[in-house]
Amino acid sequence: MVVRDQSSPRENPSVPTDLEKIYVRLLGRNHQQELFGSLVEYSQHAQGAIASCPFHADSMPTLILYRDRPEYFCFVCGARGDWLQYLQNTKSLNFSKALEELSSASGIEIRDQQASIWRENLERTQFLESAHTFFTTQLWSAPGRETLHAVFSRGYGMEEVEGMALGFYPGPNETRDYLLSQGCPRDDVDALFSRVWISAAEAHRIVIPYRDSAGRLMGLMGMDISRRGSVAYAPITDMTPVLETPFLLYRCRGHEEVIVVEGFFDALLLDRIALKPVTGIGSDGLTTGHLETAAFFGIRHFILCLGNGPGKDRKTRDAIGRIRERGLEASVMPLPGKFGDIDEFIRSTCLDHFKKLLTRIESDHEWLRARNS
Asked: Are the C-beta atoms of 279 and 267 separated by less than 8 Å?
């Protein structure tokens, strides 16, 4: 195992780190039980588990242990972090020893992991989680009322909006003021803003959380509800850590087959319907990096539903070619011609029509043959 504690940047910060891959594997094995199962008042529930917090005198369970990401949070003393930090804090291990313990449990050898990169990503995640909490509150209060009504008018219900974890972005100044009001040191907030924030996205008021394959919040996308297609989206934060990670991939744990859509709202809608796992790839199409990350995650069959319109057939062809190159399986779920994307199709028809669409999936050979004839 090679572990570095240097400040030099990674060769490609968009590629999932070895630690991310370790977390993905251990989450699939419910490693939370081994890490936290001995805590007093430990009990599992649908969203994860709870236990008495080991970081303060606790007579009742206040430590939240998440099911879909390697993180913990105490809502009394505020202790929070990831599993690597937990091992360092509770076992008095240094970074290298804690990482070695997780590496051994997962069976994944650490080739090159910098402690500085881990700390930077952990700070980023905690910073974005705090900001996102603020944004979700804003959506349901006076500042976000107009945007929320626009979402409702598009056909989304209250339960769907809550389940999608959407938020309202009031702007960088309001976000900075909130973080400072929560006791975040000004120097830390300024440093993170300069490194992470993109001020040009202020017109895209709907906030969409973007998590890496281990479920850690690594970016925030903005959406302008009045627009459609790729122009409706713009990053609120730097998205480098998740450029090679399909949107919602962390939600596909334990599945070998996924639907692939272009738009983030399309993916969120299908995720809420929950008939099949879904990922989103954005307007740039399915990349080799997306496939490599998804393949490590265990995905073997990609059902392409990239919609209709200029360039969509070409993107589907390109995706089929890349999937084949990796020895993976591709198929296509074509939409009726008048619908631009799956969101428009479901909103204009009904859920039963979508269920029928799932029975009409074509193999990649069938789809290509029909368009080449």
From this structure: yes
Half-sphere exposure of 313 (CA within 13 A, CB side): 9
- CATH number of the domain where residue 359 is located: 3.40.1360.10
Same domain, 232 and 255: no
pLDDT at position 139: 96
Whole-angstrom distance, CA of residue 225 vs CA of residue 171: 16
Is residue 28 in a domain? yes
Residue 353 tokens read as 């029509």
Flag residues of the chain having pLDDT under 50.
1-9
Q: pLDDT for 339-362, tens place per residue?
A: 999 999 998 998 999 999 999 999
**pLDDT digits over 82-132, tens only?**
999 999 999 999 999 999 999 999 999 888 778 888 999 999 999 999 999
Residues 261 and 200 in one domain: no
H or E element, residue 315:
helix 312-325
Phi-psi region of 239 (alpha: psi -120 to 50; beta: other; left: phi over 0): alpha
3-state class (DSSP) for residue 257: strand
